[in-house]
Amino acid sequence: MSPRANEKRDIRPADPAAAVRDLLTLPRLRVLPLAAGDRIAGYGQTGDYILSAAVQGNLTVSAYDHYALLDPGQAYLLAEPGEYTLQAVSSGLYFLLQLRGELTPRLLAERLAQNNLLFHGGAAAVREAAMSLAVLEDEQGEVPGEAASALAYAMLMKLQDLPSAFRVDAGSPLVEAAVAIIQEEFPFLEGVDELAKRLEVSAAHLGRVFTKKTGVSPGKYITRVRVEYAKLLLRDPDTTISYVAEASGFANANYFAKVFRRETGLSPTEYLAGAPRRPAVHTPHFGI
Question: Do 27 and 94 meet the contact criterion of CB atoms below 8 Å apart?
Answer without folding.
Answer: no
